[in-house]
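[stage:ingest] chain + small molecule (S-adenosylmethionine)
[stage:ingest] validated
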Amino acid sequence: MLEVLTRATGHLQKHGSTSARLDAEVLLAHALGVGRIDLYVRFDRPMSEEDLARYRGLVAGRARGEPVAYLVGHKEFMALDFLVTPAVLVPNPDTEVLVQRAVAIARERNGPMRAADVGTGSGCIAIALAHYAPAVEVWAGDVSRDALDVAQRNVDKHGLAGRVHLVEGDLLEPFPGEFDLVSANLPYVCGEAHLPAEVRAQPATALYAPERGAALVTRLLQSAPARLRPNGRALLEIDPAILDVAEQAAAVSFANHRVHRDLGGRERVLEAWS
Ligand SMILES: C[S@@+](CC[C@H](N)C(=O)[O-])C[C@H]1O[C@@H](n2cnc3c(N)ncnc32)[C@H](O)[C@@H]1O
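[stage:predict] done
[stage:export] tokens:
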């Protein structure tokens, strides 16, 4: 088994994976139906032809640029497991800083709170917020029906159907009432950007936005104040490339804003309030 793993790692490295060993291990554990940690006690065991064939198929998919999360059907985010399909963006560790800030806001309030998560995709932000902040009721929306189907499965998987409600439509339009918090990780990639294959494999509606990536973020910053309760806050994930435009839009709509950096030190989350 160790030899198979070593060969798969080399193959993935050759095809440009920057996390070849990890990818090879995650796919091997999936092919064998065991946890990754279990591989270490099985390294000296031979693999059946059936397991080998399954593993080769997964490694070939990864070498073609398919994200590991699509191949195995799930991804960890904020220490919770989320189902993912090619209908949704793969939850990204860079987004955890937004959720951590949202949970901190909820804890500071120390009481019931209504939150709206715009462009929810797999539902990872809405569900992680509801999981870690039990006083928060969350509405989560998306324009993609297929994404909302995945989000619903994740809501059910985490037992949060009573506190996370899904709505379909453009930005805040389908959301009922006013909110203490509006969160969003909307598409913010410029259409001309050169992206790696595993990013391009994700839905275009989850990635690209007009106006060099800034259109949806600015439109949400314009519409959010009318839907926020007094002391309400907006938390938007951004790319550093649209920071200037996003800050200008925030300065027009809100009295205050600040920027939070991600684990890699990049400006990643814009927080705005009045
Ligand atoms: C970058 S993905 C983020 C998904 C998820 N929030 C996450 O962090 O993994 C953006 C999501 O916004 C949705 N979306 C795109 N345009 C939208 C719009 N105008 N209104 C609401 N959602 C939109 C896409 O379908 C996609 O699911």
